[in-house]
Amino acid sequence: MLKTITTTAILSLGMATTVLASGEHYGGTLIFTAPYGSNFATLDEQASPNTQEELIAQAIHRALYSWDSTQNKPVLELAASEDVSSDGNVHTYHLRKNAIFHNGKPLTADDIVYSYKRIANPKNAFPGASYIAVIQGANEYIAGKSPDISGLKKIDENTLEITYTGPIDPGFSLMQNTTAIYPSNVKDESSFATHPVGLGPFVFKAHVPGSQVVVEKFDKYYKEGKPYLDHINIVLMAEDATRDVAFRNKEIDVSILGPTHYEIYQKDPALKDHLLEVAEVYTRGIGLNPALKPFQDKRVRQAINYAINTPLIVQRLIKNKAYPATGWLPLSSPAFDKNKAPYAFDPAKAKALLTEAGYPDGFEFEVTASPNESWGVPIVEAILPMLKKVGITVKPKPVESTVLGDQVTTNNFQSFLWSIPSGPDPLSAMRCFYSKTPQSACNFTSYASSEFDKLFEAAEQERDPSKQSDLLREANNLVQDDAPYWFFNYNKAVMAYQPWVHGLVPDANELAIQPYDQIWIDEIAPASRK
Amino acid sequence: MTAPILRVEDLHVRFSMSGGSLFGSSRHMLHAVNGVTFSLAKGECLSIVGESGCGKTTTALTILGLQQPTEGTISYRGQPFTGPNAPTRMQRAKAVQMVFQDPYASLNPRQTVRKSLSAPLRLHGITAASEIEARIEVMLKNVGLTPEQANRYPHEFSGGQRQRIGIARALILEPEIVVLDEPVSALDLSIRAQIINLLLDLKEQLSLSYLMISHDLSVVEHMSDRVLVMYFGEVVESGGWQQIFQTPAHPYTRRLIAAIPNVDDRISTPPNPKSRDLIVLKNAEFGTDTRVTPDVFRPPSQSKLIEIAEQHWVRISSV
Amino acid sequence: MFIFTIRRVLQTIPTVIVAALIIFVIFSVVPGTFATSLLADGKRAADPQLIARLNEELGLNKPLVERFATYITNLAHFNLGTSFRTRQPVINLITDRIWASFILASAAMMFALIVALPLGFIAALRPGSIVDTATMIGAVSGLSVPEFWLGLVLMYIFALQLNWLPSFGYGDGSFQNLILPAITLGVAPMALLARTTRAGVLDVLHSDFIRTAHAKGMSDVKVMRWHVARNALVLIITTVGLQFGSLVGQAVIIEKLFAWPGIGSLLVDSVAIRDIPVVQGTILVIVLWFLAINTAVDLIYAAIDPRIKQG
Amino acid sequence: MRFGFNFWLGATLTALVIFAGILAPWIAPFDPVFNADLMNSELPPDATFWFGTDAQGRDVLTRTLYGAQISLTVGIVSQLINSLIGVTLGMTGGYWGGWWDDLVSGLTNVMLAIPSLIFALAVLAVLGPGLPSLLIALGLTNWSWTCRVARSSTLSLKSQGYVQAAKILGYGDMRIMFTQILPNMMGPILVMATLGMGSAVLSEAALSFIGLGIQPPSPSWGSMLTDARQLIQLAPWIAVFPGLAIFLTVLGFNLLGDGLRDSLDPHMRTRKP
Amino acid sequence: MTQPLLDIRNLHLGLRLGRDLHPLLNDISFQIMPGEAYGLVGESGSGKSITSLAVMGLLRKPLSVSGGEIIFKDRNLLTLPKREMRRLRGKNVAMIFQEPMTALNPLSTVGRQIAEMFILHQGKNWREARRLAVDSLARVRVPNPERRVNDYPHQMSGGLRQRVMIAIALACDPDLLIADEPTTALDVTVQAEVLKLIKDLCAERQTAVLFISHDLGVIAAVCQRVGVMYAGCLVEENSTDRLFSDPQHPYTRGLLGALPRLGGRLENGRQRLVDIDSIITDRSILTKTRCIAPRIKEGSTP
């Protein structure tokens, strides 16, 4: 999910101005941090679905599409232009002629065909295969029934024709880092895992396992004048407290902040001017399983939403590093309804609803949750006294993050607290409530409403984006009213950066992924960065 | 002398010692007891003497059932004491008991004297509190302690008193045979006399049979009726106490006796090691001089016991 | 000596096998799979097809017995398997990081030895004195602080406030980066060693041969040099070995806190994402490390103590 | 028995923790879980909240007092399991010898080779986080030391006169183990257990740090400390008090164990890592 | 009359716990002439070992001398500077201990442990010292001294180890040898050999011996004069012959009667052994000696 200048002005509260257009400065080293774990699993980006590795992909690789956060939609990256057939199924791409791989090979249609086949290769079991599945014939290939993907057709060296399974926007699938394009002339595929070769602005230089990846400026990058930096060191630093010390100690240039440090940094005059914020497209909340009898009653589900003082939790516990949720679709979603009011904090009404539903003395339920500080057990702790006041007893059931995924997707819970992607594509976000979506896919609360299904199916068919948004907005409001979840918050991602760093953008998909080719550092940077 | 109550016949005990090969699989056998035969009569005190490692303790442990014999039999009043028909620990307990060398290690520091004495009684089916009380009282008096002392723990007693408790414990089940393992060697000089006197008194009083293990020949002479001299797992000489101390026949026995520094002898000169090499033994039975070659480290492998006087046996080289 | 060495090494084989079995069994019944771990960060949509395909691909839906057979067969060929996540041989992942672990453990042990030996000695020479009491309470205090807490405190003091040392990471393996994690990790063994040294030296000082040495007319310094030091070492060296052997396993938290690229942090991460081959491989390597150190200690022991039977 | 200064210091600290734990329901000013009020979150110490409040608005003093219960439970129960396994295996192994002893020794060696923290981590991963799992995990990990001590004690006690005497008196093996051997090795076992309690409390904190410790809302010191590490600049009191509590408790157990050992046997060496 | 080699005058010694002094030795006085073998006999706790440690200056912390003098060759050892005392130890006064098992450093070869003496007192280098160590081993009749010099203590039997101890003690031809129960841990036949060795070697080089034992027979075998110690007092002293043939003090008489004598039963039949306690309860008999100490009753540990 790549690049480009932003604003989403409403979202970037208190964001520092990023000087662009003038004063760009070449050279220097950026010390970037990888906060999601203490190692890079692999340098073979097609093999990794994780944000952690995407931090490297962003420097080294490019995919057919990229995310434009200005327009809030995917745009062409490796093709200069495309022709779309009238039924919307066939796209003909005219590839960039100046794109060159780090090993010197110019980009051709073969490379894309090669890459997509490698990703979908059943022997590899790569996570990106499901994205390739939007191409016609990919499923047969994935299942091992066909030696080729029938929808991929090379017209000439620089022209590629792709037939999709329907009139969808392929950008959402083919902009993923797991669909990055590799050169087709590398004999030993296993070397991708140790010596990645891509089309990106930086060339892989060194990997110290468990410590850092170093990349170096690629002189033949296809965008004129980019990148500015000579080197980027992407260092692994999973522990918040350590990152805090290192950042204050000016050992690293950027740091993703947790709620606590967000509050601290906001109060610190030396740090508060260099924070970058964005509303990310994840919705957090407690999903309620209708298998538990009380949850079958809409009034009970609503009562839970009324009983919890959501803004207070966001303010006090998450230190405002989140936006209280009004419904499923997040703030940055095109289908977000600004006028829809969230559930008010109204314990009396909650109590009344419970009585009405036949639970005047409340009931007891279990919340399966991971240790995450923003959407885990601490939140359950906070709602515990609140629900107690309306008579509901909450029992936290702590599990490891991995086990949470396991139990939710196998419908093994009374309720769960999780963070679920709800964008950027509102259609796929709302699919989670479509009755035909399997429970294990994303309809975790086994939601089924004929009214919703009607709206959703209409939206699926609708080709006009604004009309589609209207339909989805309506569907979203329906879900909010039905309350299969306690809607908690949309994440606010915050990144602190050193004053000499310029060109960072607030990307709603994942703030930690930054357009490295636009970042530059100025002369106030310490000697170690020059 | 009455008929023997305990009979040990051709007893062998071997220990396997792990060797130093790659897998520790090769085993050396240590022949701790090698063909020991003797019997113990009612009311008799039989002493086994010898230096450390001669097998005297192993022999005693085998009789007590704490060590399995490799070969040979032990019988008590005609009943087998070893093998498949061996008695259980419980049954054996009423026949043989033991008094230990170290009075400090032989009493459980966490048990009062009363507990130490009453638990065996209970174990053996005597449950009436009054009877237990009575027997403990009698036994404590027998060994020269007062019943009031029964509630104390071992650390409240001196070495001599502990040894008395140890004797009381050995006698509480009224066994016929008591094994005395160096009963006084760990005690102070002034206490030894008391314990030796006590043991001799008890033997008379309760008509006990003692099997005493000792290296202290003066104590052995004082207490024993018969003596068994062991050397490297074998009996080299056995006989009545007078025979052993008055007319020791085997050179090893002589050497042992000669080595005792004695107040009366003032300064006894230890035998010159060289004179040990060849000793000529007058043998009445064969009418010839038999050459006995007592090796310093090992008894001769080809050897046998011969009777040179009534019940006085000596091991000679049969080559 | 050679046979002794060989025998000592062979003796560790059953231990390794049983350890491998225990590790395999435990991690075969752990809930959660690598596939579901992909959902763990709450940033990805669940894809049941992908999960099914991954499980199929990684052989996770085969019966347990079959998986164990494969595992053991691989082990017999010195093959630790292939990581679920990186698709690389586990052995490569481990060799990439073992050096960092080794450096950290060695530095921590050095720190522990340098501090603990003199402290233990001094305390033993004046048992019951104020110096002794203070030293021992100090040592025990070091043992009573949660490691991550100590690490954080050191980090705040030496990196942030005083700005003397870098706060984290391996850097290019420079000494400065090593100091804080090594001290944090070394405090616990330091405390134990100080106590062992004290006990060991006291033990030796009370032995009869020290009285013999004094009776020979030897000065205190010579007694220390000729008789106490070496004999105390024999008592200390087992503790040193056990400590050094378990340090790699103990370092898990320190590595996580200081972003140190050792196998401890690899292990914790792999457990979290259920990358079972890596978990099994890493634990096995930690076990082997422990056994190797302790075998080495036994050999050193045999070399300095003539009483140990030599093959 | 004469006890040194260290012992008394340790005994005092331990006694304080025990009192705090037992009396928590009476002396703690608030409920440890349900008095949470986010309006009161992160208040510094004052007249109402002597130790301040945490991020959830709960009284830190209350939670620190209740935390003593959890830490004591962790320490004592895990060590009970530990000692039970270690003593049973070590004593029977040492007493009977033979293949059983070989098996016990082999298993002990394996358990020594697998670092305890990692084994606990594995057990917790299987059982899922939480107090019962933690007790089992810690109980299963450290018994090898107890087992070694129990085994070597048994070996030396086995040759003691009174054990031999018991055999000669007709005692059965079980009776000998329970009445003659066990009571006489309680000293070193107690020392091991006391020192083990300290390390169990620390292990709980360490496992909390990896996210596998006692789970909220239970007021365990380890999880309080782990939660608070982010807040150390913002609200240091949340971290200071449970941190201090852990330190003093573990110090207490360690000093107590050391003191016990010194007075039981000055030459018994510490080998536990 | 020649000058005594060792002259212990009114030695008082006790256990100092805080301010209290628990007396262990009461007014001990005796003399040893050059070349003389003097025996100290008594039960455990009678103070004989402490006396010898006091002479060596090897008393450990809570034990301290509270009065008296120990004159060795005109010098009071109690006031001698530490350095002087150290030079004297080993060179002029040597000592053999009871347990040959633990009195030798298990990690050093016996050769080295003997050689240390030559390094310490004769300024030899290691090579010479080692050669001398071989000679020393030969002198104590250790077979194969060249080979044995490289042995570690655990490779030797108890008797050999005690010979090594003797070799160490006599390495520098001391004037006085203190032997503290040197044969108690040995088998009787080995004991006889070791005793003879000590006797012969000391006679050869006119070394005086302070021989400590609880075994009257051993004392009789080695010593010319004997002192009997009881509860921290020297209760009787006489030439060996006189002491054993005509004991004056009831305690001495008790001691002699308390033990069976080899051959005694053959001569006189089984006589009941004397119970010392029954004699000693009459406290008046203690007044015959200078030292009157309360009888330390059995069981009351001092």
Automatic annotation (TrEMBL), chain A:
Record carries keyword Oxidoreductase: no
Gene Ontology cellular component list: ATP-binding cassette (ABC) transporter complex; outer membrane-bounded periplasmic space
Subcellular location: Periplasm
Keywords: Signal
Entry-linked SUPFAM superfamilies: Periplasmic binding protein-like II (SSF53850)
Position of the signal peptide: 1-21
Species this protein is from: Phyllobacterium myrsinacearum
UniProt name for this protein: Peptide/nickel transport system substrate-binding protein
Family recorded in the similarity comment: Belongs to the bacterial solute-binding protein 5 family.
Solute-binding protein family domain span: 73-439
Keyword Iron-sulfur: no
UniProtKB/TrEMBL annotation, chain B:
Membrane topology, record value: Peripheral membrane protein
Broad class of the protein's primary localization: membrane
Catalytic activity: glutathione(out) + ATP + H2O = glutathione(in) + ADP + phosphate + H(+)
Entry annotated with the keyword Electron transport: no
The ABC transporter domain, residue ranges: 6-257
General function of this protein: Part of the ABC transporter complex GsiABCD involved in glutathione import. Responsible for energy coupling to the transport system.
The protein, known as: Glutathione import ATP-binding protein GsiA
Organism (species): Phyllobacterium myrsinacearum
From TrEMBL, chain C:
Superkingdom, natural source: Bacteria
Keywords: Cell membrane, Membrane, Transmembrane, Transmembrane helix, Transport
Pfam family, one: BPD_transp_1
Membrane topology: Multi-pass membrane protein
Major place of residence: membrane
InterPro entries: BPD_transp_1_N, MetI-like, MetI-like_sf
Family to which the UniProt record says this protein belongs: Belongs to the binding-protein-dependent transport system permease family.
Function field: Part of the ABC transporter complex GsiABCD involved in glutathione import. Probably responsible for the translocation of the substrate across the membrane.
The name this protein goes by in its record: Glutathione transport system permease protein GsiC
Organism from which the protein derives: Phyllobacterium myrsinacearum
Higher taxonomy: Bacteria, Pseudomonadati, Pseudomonadota, Alphaproteobacteria, Hyphomicrobiales
Automatic annotation (TrEMBL), chain D:
Highest taxon listed in the record's lineage: Bacteria
Coiled coil stretches, renumbered: none
Organism in which the protein naturally occurs: Phyllobacterium myrsinacearum
Record keywords, A-Z: Cell membrane, Membrane, Transmembrane, Transmembrane helix, Transport
GO cellular component, one term: plasma membrane
Pfam families for this protein: BPD_transp_1
InterPro entries named in the record: BP-dependent_transpt_permease, MetI-like, MetI-like_sf
Protein name as it appears in the record: Peptide/nickel transport system permease protein
Single GO BP term: transmembrane transport
Family indicated by similarity: Belongs to the binding-protein-dependent transport system permease family.
